[in-house]
Amino acid sequence: MDNSRTMGSKSQHLSLGANTGSDAVAKTIAESIYANKRTSNSSTATGSDKRWIKHQGLRQLAQIAVENGAWIDKVSVLTNGDSINNGTENTVYLSKDGINVIKANNFFFLNENDAEFKHTRDLKYFFDRIIAHNLLFPEISYKIIGFTKDSGGQICVVLQQPYIPNYEYAAREKIDSELEKMGFIKTVLGEGINNGLNGYTNGIYELTDAKPLNVLKDENGKLHFVDLDISLSLKF
Predict the structure, then answer these.
(1) Is 4 in contact with 206 (CB distance < 8 Å)?
(2) In the prediction, which pLDDT does 63 show?
């Protein structure tokens, strides 16, 4: 999420509290964001070195997760067998009880080399996106339940989200209509990392990737926005 707000470790811990599965997870996130900020602003870092190094930041996140008891050795302890969907960012499983999906997200879209939009390349950016999603779509909210490694050894955050059974992909006109009811206008976005992209805005948030694959219609006809790219307008 394109978020220019700043949060200290304490406020980040509090704001994420309702979005995490345990105090250990919330504490891990707060400490990792603080460590990330401290490292990137170190007095020994100068010029091009004054930036977040992704692999180092994720390694540090994993170490903090282990220390806090937020590390999950094998995601299979939470799931009901093999993955049901594999994407660039998420490997998706059905939970053991069949009520939720479990997503192992590999932080793929954090871009440490984005010199223009520095806020899009660190851990705070990722977790701000989770908070924004849950504010806009509380019925299909994410819960952050821990951290793990995927089968390829990549460090991941483990997310839980309600499972929508017997779904269909929503039609584009239905997506437009539902977002309009929420106060969003469909337009060509004109600022920040979304400049020139087709999307939606309500003056506060910008939404992209609202395509049928990411919006599910349940058996009662209700739409569920499961995986949009959400950015805070640069005006806020």
Answers:
(1) no
(2) 97
Give pLDDT, residue 113: 60
From the CB of residue 167, how many other CB atoms can be counted at a distance below 10 Å?
15
User: 9-162 — its CATH code?
Assistant: 3.30.200.20
On whether the CB atoms of residues 142 and 21 are closer than 8 A, the answer is no
Prediction pTM value:
0.83
pLDDT score of 55: 87
Report which of 164, 174, 165 is spatially closest to residue 212, judged by C-alpha positions. Answer: 174
Residue 184, Cβ neighbours under 10 Å: how many? 21
Question: 39: which 2 tokens?
Answer: 């490292």
Quote the DSSP letter at residue 220. T
Cα–Cα nearest to 231, from 171, 191, 196, 187 = 191
**Cα distance between residue 59 and residue 65, in whole Å:** 10
For residue 58 the two structure tokens come to 């994720």
Q: Where do the domains of the chain lie? A: 9-162, 168-232
- The one-letter amino acid at 31: E
Place of tokens 């819960």: 143
Could you give the CA distance from residue 232 to residue 128 in angstroms, rounded to a whole number?
9
Q: For position 193, what pLDDT does the model report?
A: 67
Give residue 17's pLDDT.
55
Low-confidence ranges of the chain (pLDDT < 50): 1-14, 42-50
